[in-house]
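Example 3.2
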Amino acid sequence: MTTRMGHGLAISPEKDLAMFADMARKGKHLNGVSSLAHGFTFTDGPAEDLVFDLAYEDHPTPDYFDIFAAAGWTHTVSVGNCHIFKAAPGTAPLHLGTDSKRDELVRNRNRYTLYTASHWPSCSSSAC
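Structure, written as tokens:
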């Protein structure tokens, strides 16, 4: 098993998706999240030419994953509400328009902002 640090799916998902594809070409297949969710785990297997994409859904049903499977995408791993899929090159992308991708990025930005604001340490000294 191999572990690689991620770039941050919420910040630069394209870098992590490119890393997943590069690892698959080397025979390392994404299969999970490492300890403390700071990276990803990969298992050894045959080298494959794959593309990766992700989608967000808070409470996915089996039908949710069936829709992607019917379009040629295989669910690989989920991290919270983020679901990572793989497919052969040339498969229609998960996001067909810029509106759906933009809406998803705005939603993630808002979640991250709320999380940061609610977990930011408060400062009660006059030095702050």
